[in-house]
Specification:
12 helices; FAD/NAD(P)-binding domain; about 525 residues; Cholesterol Oxidase, domain 2
C-alpha cells in the first residue's frame, strides 16, 4: 500500500510526488496518459508537432457567445509530465499582486513573499542567481540557445513603440519586452516529470502507472482511503495509507470530484450521483487566457517557414544532434512583451507572445503557407468566469467545458487595446526589412470598433491556461482550504492549477510546479520556507 496516491502526473503532481518520495514516503502516481517516451517531447521545437497528437486531451468547449457561437478546442496535456511535456516551455511566474490577491481573498500563506521561496527552491537557472532566482533545484531554467532574426526585430520594434527592454520577466518588475527563459536544461526540455520523477524513481519509493483512468475516489465516511481506476480494460483499486492527492488539472480534477459525489448538489442529482459531500464551488470559477493574432506576411523566406519540410528537417535535426544548435533548439515562442495599455507605468494587464511564423491554429479554411510574423496579445487577468460540469455519469465521457470567454465587458475593452498595441509594434521600422507594408490580419480595412470586436470574436483562441475550478479560500464557495485540503473531507487534497483563486499574469506551468513544491511541505507538516524580503 502506498502512503500517498497522486492522481495525475502533470507538472504539480510530478513535483509533489518527487518531493514526497525523496523524503521517504511510498508514492503511487496514476497517470491516464502514456509515458513521456516520444522523442519530440524532449526537443525544444518538438511541441509544434505534438499539438494535434493523442498526447493532449482536445476538449471542445460549449458554444461561446463571446466568440460568435464557436466551440474552440481547449487542449490539455495527456502524458506523463502533463502540459509541461507538450507546452512551449515558457517560464513565467506572474506578478507580485497575483499572489498577494490570493492571500487577501483568504488563501493565507500564499502571498508573493510566501511563494517566492518555493519558486526559487524549484529552480536551477543557468544565468540568474539572486533574491528572485534559485540554482540547483530540479527544474532546469535556461536562456534560449537559438533566436530567430524576426524575434530580434520584435525586440527592437517593441522598444521603438515605447516598451522598455527587460532581461527578466520574473524579477522585480514584469513590465517590458524580452526573450523568454525556458524550462530546458542542456538543450532538452526539463518537464516536471524529467526534473522530479526521474530522480525520485531511483529512491525505490515511487511507482508510476500510466494508462490509468481514475473513475472514483473511495470514501469511508468522510475519509478518502483510495481510488478506483481502469487499466487495460480492467477495473482496479488502490488504497492510500495517508492521503489521496488529486492533480488532474482544472478540467479533470472537478470531473473526478463530481463522479465521486463531491460537488454541487443539483449537478450531482441531475446525473443520479449520490451526494457524499456538497461543495457548490466544484467546477465553478473557470478562467483562461484568450489570445488573437496580429499578422504580417514576410517579403521573403524569413522566420521558421519551411523549416519543417523533409530536407530542412533532416538538416536541422543533424545540426541539433551534432552541434546543439539551429532551429530545433528554439521553442518558437522566443519572446514576449508585458504592457499596461491603460497606464504604461503600471504593472502589465496585457501579455503578447511573439512567434516568427503565421500562427492561426486552424481557424481558416486552409493553412496559410507563407512566411510571416504573429503577435498574440491576451488579457492577463480576465474577469470572465466559466465552469466545468459533467456531461453524464459515464467516467469515459469528456466533461462540459464552458469558459464563457469575453462575457465580462472589461475583457473586450482590454482586448481591443491589446490588439491595437500589437498592430502598432508591427508597423515599426525594425520590421520594415522583413514584412510587407500591408497588414495581413486583421487587415487594413479592419479599423472601426465594430469590425475589431468582430475580428477578436472570430479569431480568439485559448492560450492553454485553464485554472480556478477548485479554488482555495475560506468562504463557502471555496473547495480547498489554504493547506489544499478538500473542505469537509479528511485525507483528500488537491494539488494543481484548479486551486488558483484567480488566474496569474502569464503562463501557468511555473506556478503549477510551485504549488506542488509548497504542497509537499504542507502535506508533511513542515513549517513553510522563510518568507522572502524581495
Amino acid at each position: 500500500m502506498a502512503d500517498y496516491i497522486i492522481v495525475g502526473g502533470g507538472s504539480a503532481g510530478s513535483a509533489v510526488a518527487g518531493r514526497l518520495a525523496e523524503a521517504g514516503a511510498k508514492v503511487l502516481v496514476l497517470e491516464s496518459g502514456p509515458r513521456d517516451r516520444n522523442p519530440l517531447i524532449h526537443i525544444p521545437a518538438g511541441f509544434v508537432k505534438l499539438l494535434d497528437s493523442k498526447l493532449l486531451y482536445h476538449y471542445a468547449t460549449e458554444a461561446q457567445a463571446g466568440l460568435d457561437g464557436r466551440r474552440p478546442v481547449l487542449p490539455q496535456g495527456h502524458v506523463l509530465g502533463g502540459g509541461g511535456s507538450v507546452n512551449a516551455t515558457v517560464y513565467i511566474r506572474g506578478q507580485r499582486s497575483d499572489y498577494d490577491g490570493w492571500a487577501q481573498d483568504g488563501a493565507d500563506g500564499w502571498s508573493y513573499r510566501d511563494v517566492l521561496p518555493y519558486f526559487r527552491r524549484a529552480e536551477d537557472n543557468d544565468r540568474l542567481a539572486d533574491e528572485y532566482h534559485g540554482n540547483g533545484g530540479p527544474l532546469g531554467v535556461s536562456d534560449l540557445r537559438h533566436v530567430n532574426e524576426l524575434t530580434r526585430a520584435f525586440l527592437r520594434g517593441a522598444q521603438q513603440a515605447g516598451i522598455p527592454l527587460t532581461n527578466d520577466f520574473n524579477g522585480a518588475r514584469q513590465r517590458g519586452v524580452g526573450l523568454n527563459q525556458t524550462t530546458t536544461r542542456n538543450g532538452r526540455r526539463c518537464s516536471a516529470a524529467v526534473g522530479y520523477l526521474r530522480p525520485a524513481l531511483r529512491t525505490g519509493n515511487l511507482e508510476i502507472r500510466t494508462g490509468c483512468q481514475v473513475i472514483r475516489i473511495l470514501l469511508e465516511g468522510d475519509r478518502a482511503v483510495g481510488v478506483e481506476y481502469t487499466h487495460n480494460g480492467k477495473l482496479e483499486c488502490a488504497r492510500a495509507g495517508c492521503e489521496v492527492i488529486l492533480s488532474g488539472g482544472a478540467i479533470q480534477t472537478p470531473k473526478l470530484l463530481m463522479l465521486s459525489g463531491i460537488g454541487p448538489e443539483a449537478e450531482l442529482q441531475r446525473h443520479g450521483i449520490a451526494v457524499k459531500q456538497r461543495l457548490e464551488g466544484v467546477g465553478q470559477n473557470l478562467q483562461d487566457h484568450l489570445e488573437f493574432p496580429a499578422i504580417r506576411f514576410c517579403t521573403g523566406r524569413y522566420g521558421y517557414f519551411g523549416e519543417d519540410g523533409p530536407l530542412r528537417s533532416i538538416k536541422n535535426g543533424l545540426q541539433y544532434l551534432l552541434f546543439g544548435t539551429g532551429p530545433v533548439m528554439s521553442n518558437v515562442t522566443e519572446a514576449c512583451a508585458f504592457v499596461n495599455v491603460d497606464d504604461p507605468e503600471q504593472e502589465p494587464n496585457i501579455q503578447m507572445h511573439f512567434v516568427p511564423i503565421v500562427f492561426m491554429e486552424g481557424y481558416v479554411q486552409q493553412p496559410i503557407k507563407r512566411a510571416g510574423v504573429t503577435i498574440n496579445p491576451c488579457v492577463l487577468r480576465p474577469e470572465s468566469r466559466g465552469e466545468v460540469r459533467l456531461r453524464c455519469a459515464d467516467p469515459e465521457a469528456l466533461p462540459v467545458v464552458d469558459p464563457r470567454y469575453l462575457t465580462a465587458p472589461g475583457d473586450m475593452r482590454l482586448s481591443l487595446k491589446g490588439l491595437a498595441c500589437a498592430r502598432h509594434i508591427l508597423t515599426q521600422s525594425a520590421f520594415a526589412p522583413y514584412v510587407e507594408k500591408a497588414e495581413a490580419f486583421p487587415g487594413e480595412d479592419v479599423q472601426d470598433e465594430a469590425s475589431l470586436r468582430a475580428y477578436i470574436r472570430s479569431r480568439g483562441k485559448t492560450v492553454y491556461h485553464p485554472v480556478g475550478t477548485c479554488r482555495m479560500g475560506k468562504d463557502d464557495r471555496a473547495v480547498v482550504d489554504p493547506e489544499l485540503r478538500v473542505r469537509g473531507l479528511r485525507n483528500l487534497r488537491i494539488v494543481d492549477n484548479s486551486v488558483m483563486p484567480s488566474l496569474i499574469s502569464g503562463n501557468t506551468n511555473a506556478t503549477a510546479i510551485m504549488i506542488g513544491e509548497k504542497a509537499s511541505d504542507l502535506i508533511r507538516g513542515l513549517p513553510p520556507l522563510p518568507a522572502s524580503n524581495a
